[in-house]
Each structure stands twice: as C-alpha cells, then as structure tokens.
## 1
Amino acid sequence: QKEVEQDPGPLSVPEGAIVSLNCTYSNSAFQYFMWYRQYSRKGPELLMYTYSSGNKEDGRFTAQVDKSSKYISLFIRDSQPSDSATYLCAIVTSGTYKYIFGTGTRLKVLA
Amino acid sequence: DGGITQSPKYLFRKEGQNVTLSCEQNLNHDAMYWYRQDPGQGLRLIYYSQIVNDFQKGDIAEGYSVSREKKESFPLTVTSAQKNPTAFYLCASSKVATYGYTFGSGTRLTVV
C-alpha cells in the first residue's frame, strides 16, 4: 500500500465550479499537510500548509484535514481556467524534512 | 527577487555520459533537495542536504551523486550508472526549522 494515494484524474470542470481534490494516507504519524500546484513543465508552488485537523482558508482555496479518517482535501471555489494544473498533496512527519508526495491530480477548468 | 535557479532547462545525455544539473538558491535556506518526477509516479527523493558539506541519500540515490560545498549550491550529477535517467528533475530548498519547499523550475533530461 502506498503511503499517500491520490486520484490522478484528469478532472474536467466548467468555469465557476467548486472543485474537490483529495488524498488519503496510511501512516497516522504524519502531522503536516501541504498542497502544491504545478503548471505544465514548471516546478510545484506551495498553495496551502496545515498541521491540524479542520479547515484552513486562503482566498478561493480551502484545505481540509481529517486525521481520524486519514483524509485530506483541497477545495477550489469559483474555479478559473488559470487553475488548470496538476495538484500535488504532500505529507511530512515532525522532525523530518522528507516529504511524501501524492502522484498528483490533473485539473482542467473549461472556459 | 529570491528564488531557486535550475539550469539548464533542457539537457540531452548520450549513453555512458555523466551530466551535471545545476541548482542555486538565494533564499538563505539551509536545506536543499533533489527530486525526480516521472509520469504517474509522483516526486521521488534522490538526495537531500541540511547543512553545508553534509548530505543524505533519498529513496532512489543509485546512479546519482551530489555535493554541497556552498550553502547556495547543490549540483546533481547523473552518472552513467543510472540506467533510466530520462525524467524531469526538480531542486527544492527550505529553512530547516520550517516546513514547505520552494521549488526550482526544473530540468528535463533526455537520453539520446
């Protein structure tokens, strides 16, 4: 079983839709959770970072962590064509800097 | 502006050849990392370094080598021992005491 599972997509949605991206993980020791956005042929950029269960909001983006279910989500409201990218979840344990990355979900927002 | 610079953007390697990928950062970050990205496999850690003159193997270090002689620089050499080097290589850095990587824009290596 992989430590982090992420649906690869692709996921196509119309402009303005609410997008839900998800990852599941197997190790309850994981404590820090991140979402990265990666445009084609570019390096990933950090979107959201959280270390507790619950929701964290930043503009149109909301990161949600459910540690009891080992499930993390990223919601994008009012999605735009510029949101079309691959979204990677990343998880790390306290005291280490080696992240475990999901395989990424490819999102396409249609104008 | 602070950031990470990877060069070259595209690199072609002949069979049996060693090639070196450059990574330079001016963020004053202590830790630096090299990842390999292949379609459908996510990012896999090759090597990482938390301080100058010290580095550790990641999950797929075979066929690769690194050095960390300066805080700003962490070059990666892909040796002829790496049998399947065609991939997208990403360098990243972070402050040791915080979380969240800053990534470079990547180098795409192709064997010809």
Note: Chain A has a mean pLDDT of 91.
## 2
Amino acid sequence: QLQLQESGPGLVKPSETLSLTCTVSGGSISSSSYFWGWIRQPPGEGLEWIGIIHYNGNTYYNPSLKSRVTISVDTSKNQFSLKLSSVTAADTAVYYCVTKKSGSGWYDYWGQGTLVTVSS
Amino acid sequence: QSALTQPASVSGSPGQSITISCTGTSSDVGGYNYVSWYQQHPGKAPKVMIYDVSNRPSGVSSRFSGSKSGNTASLTISGLQAEDEADYYCSSHTSSSTWLFGGGTKLTVL
C-alpha cells in the first residue's frame, strides 16, 4: 500500500518560491503504473488540481498555474516535488500530494496535507 | 477552465436519500467516464467514494452510488447516516488532459 508524506516550509514570503517534497513509501516512484501529483485547498475553500507527472517526465499542469508551476521527480530519493514561483496570499492553502494509476481517472492515495501560508 | 458546478449545500434526515449534482461541459463530464467523487471530513484528506462515474472502491459502503447523464454527474447516498456528514467534491478528466474539481457540497445530516 502506497503512503505519501508532504514536507516543506509552512511559511513563505510573497514573491518567493514555494517548494514542497512528497516522499513515497510502499512503492517505487519509477513505476510506469503511476502518476504523481499535487492538489491544494485554500482555507475554507474547495479543491484545486495543480498538476501531475509520470516518472518518464511527462507533465500536465493546471492552465491557470502553468506559468508558475514545476513538478519534478527524484528517483534516487523516491520523492517528487512541487515548486510554485512568485507566490501571493492567494497561494495560501493546504497542499496534498497524490497519486493515481496510469489509465485511471481517480486519485486513490493522498498525503495528509501540509498548510503553506504566504505572508511577510 | 472553470470549476464544475455543485450545489453549495444539501441536507437530509437519517435514513433518507440525497443526491448531489455535478455539472460540467462536453469537454469534461460529458466527454469522459473519468468522473469521481470524494468525501472530506474536517481536517482530513479527501477519500474517493466513487470512480469512473459509478464504481465503488473496495471498502466503500453500497449506500453510495454514482451516475451520469449528458454533462451532469450525480452522487446518491441512500440510508443517510450521521457519519456521512462531510464535504463532497466531484472531479473530472478534461479534454486538455487536466483534471477539474467541483466547488464542493456540504452535506448536513439533520
């Protein structure tokens, strides 16, 4: 059974870059069977899909965030990461790392989520 | 891309049935059978309750069912129980190879 755990700073200053890492256990991030991704939820609001990556490097991003987002994979550490540049208060949210099986349309494993606050 | 449209809230008494709708377009809900539904209790990560429009993952109660007609998908919960009180989100694959979520529906069990 896959387990996902987010890590990273809980506070980021405006205009800086938000960086989060998701550590995967119970499976290999190099598996062709999975996509790895990020979903966020501003306090008191709904879910927003950020993007996903396959270990072969194929990425898909939310068009509204595409210019600021980079998702990458580190196979040596069995981790994947999220970078969101030029953040503002609107990027304050709980960030979840997620995974879905290739060819499926649902996210079956979620991390516990980590709150990132953008404030000076 | 705009979020899928869900009612902000629904309510029902224990034992009753409720239905939550999720309306999109032919480029998402209407065009694919990759519609899923997630349940989220306060402070917890979402949990998938329905995938591929009408399939239940192992361990999810048969009281939860899903369907789709045109550009609108629906989640029905029968025999409401207090533990069903939560936020529910629909999600769909899109023609741009991205995913959309609905705005969420707060279910209150009276």
Note: The longest strand of chain A covers residues 93-101.
